[in-house]
Write a structure and sequence with these properties.
The chain contains six helices and 22 strands. The longest helix is centred in the N-terminal third of the chain and has 22 residues, at 2-23. Strand 15 (259-263) and strand 16 (268-271) form a beta hairpin. It folds into three domains: 42-178, no CATH class; 185-252, Alpha-Beta Plaits (2-Layer Sandwich); 260-292 and 310-369, no CATH class. The protein is flat and about 110 Å long. With 370 residues, the chain is α+β, with helices and mostly antiparallel strands. The chain has helices at residues 2-23, 64-76, 201-215, 240-247, 333-343, 347-360; strands at 29-30, 35-37, 42-52, 91-101, 109-116, 127-134, 140-147, 153-156, 161-164, 169-178, 191-196, 220-222, 227-231, 251-252, 259-263, 268-271, 276-282, 287-298, 309-320, 326-330, 363-364, 366-369. The strands form seven sheets. It has a six-stranded antiparallel β-barrel. The protein has a four-stranded antiparallel β-sheet with strand order 2-11-13-12, with helices on one face. 22% of the residues lie in helices and 37% in strands.
């Protein structure tokens, strides 16, 4: 009797653990990892410049805008140059880009990216001359200059050429200096908007409830599937940094619709956590057709009046694998993976299987092909 009672207690305890495990929510993440805040963003800057000091890997003379740019630059420096006599093999025209945070102030350093726009083969060893970087409004916000850093190299010979990575794009760490700040007063806002990176009504509502619970009042509301509006509490007026620091570290359990993402270019298949498959029987066999062309040459005998005849010959080989029907059903992601692996399909075969399962109505998820 005592042993039976212990067994019943153990079964009861196991049932409690099982139910508790089933009730566990999805893994919690911080708000700042799944959402962005209104006003807290980067601004893209762009400019046109010249990289000099290249070892014969710059633009060729047929790139007219490089020649014109050098001529104009030398003219501004008081040096008269005949554009037709310029040799630009050590110079390359480039586009310079940078991302400027909204909080950047004059004197802040920015990393800039330098990209060739002519026919230069390498920017190795080059130096970017002073370049103005402008925003979408046409105003200058930063100046860039410095030595270009590459992540590769190239070497040419008479009959061979070797290259590692891309040599026509480089970066200048800290090469940009902010000269004008963005006209935006962050602390003057009366409300904030949190924008979800992945739109979902459940996640937006959960975020609003979590914010209201943490701040002790109805300050937040879900506007739509991708944004939550947050009214600034009175004691945080004109002092939003403490509010942002506390809000961005709150944790929620984001939800998302079941989705299967397929990249046919690489054969990559990613299945979301909530993907389910109803009971279905699947048989998948590979069909391979090999066509080989060859020519048979018939030569006439010596001193005969015959002609050489070329007869084409085609060898055709067909092979189809004989696969049995397999039952596939997935109530959890692990069961789904195990069932698909049992078929023995390659990733590219899996793409066809998932498409067929969706057409049959057995795949309960959105199938997205990128």
């Amino acid at each position: 009797m005592k042993l039976t009672g212990i067994r019943c207690y153990l079964h009861f305890l196991a049932a409690i653990v099982l139910v508790a495990g089933m009730a566990l929510p999805a893994q919690a993440v911080r708000i700042k990892d799944i959402a962005t805040f209104s006003g807290v963003r980067d601004n893209q800057l762009i400019g046109y410049g010249l990289v000099v000091g290249l070892s014969g890997t710059g633009d060729k003379n047929k790139v007219a805008f490089t020649t014109s740019s050098i001529s104009n630059m030398m003219d501004r420096m008081g040096v008269a140059v005949d554009p037709s006599k310029l040799k630009v093999k050590n110079v390359a025209s480039v586009m310079v880009t940078a991302r400027m945070p909204v909080s950047a102030k004059p004197g802040t350093r920015l990393d800039v990216t330098v990209s060739s726009v002519g026919d230069a083969t390498s920017l190795l060893g080059g130096v970017l001359l002073q370049t103005t970087l402008k925003g979408i409004d046409g105003k200058t916000y930063s100046l860039a200059q410095g030595s270009v850093t590459l992540g590769g190299y190239t070497a040419d010979g008479v009959a061979a050429r070797t290259q590692k990575n891309i040599t026509t794009v480089g970066i200048i760490p800290g090469g940009g200096i902010v000269e004008r700040s963005i006209p935006f007063q962050f602390n003057d806002q009366d409300s904030l908007t949190l924008n979800l990176r992945s739109a979902d009504f459940s996640t937006a509502q959960q975020m609003a409830e979590r914010l209201n619970s943490a701040m002790g009042g109805p300050f937040a509301r879900a506007v739509d599937a991708s944004s939550v509006s947050l009214a600034v509490p009175p004691h945080y007026k004109n002092n939003l940094v403490p509010l942002m620091a506390s809000v961005e570290n709150l944790e929620i359990s984001p939800d998302a619709p079941a989705k299967v993402v397929v990249d046919e270019k690489t054969g990559t298949v990613v299945l979301g956590r909530d993907v389910r498959i109803s009971r279905a029987a699947v048989a998948h066999g590979n069909l391979q057709i090999t066509v080989q062309e060859s020519e048979l040459v018939s030569q006439p005998g010596p001193f005969s009046q015959g002609q050489t005849v070329v007869t084409p010959q085609t060898d055709l080989n067909t092979r189809e694998e004989n696969r049995r029907l397999m039952m596939v059903e997935g109530a959890t992601l692990q069961e789904l993976v195990d069932g698909l692996n049992a078929i023995g399909a390659t990733p590219r075969d899996l793409i066809s299987i998932l498409r067929t399962l969706q057409a049959s109505g057995a795949l309960h998820a959105a199938l997205e092909v990128i």
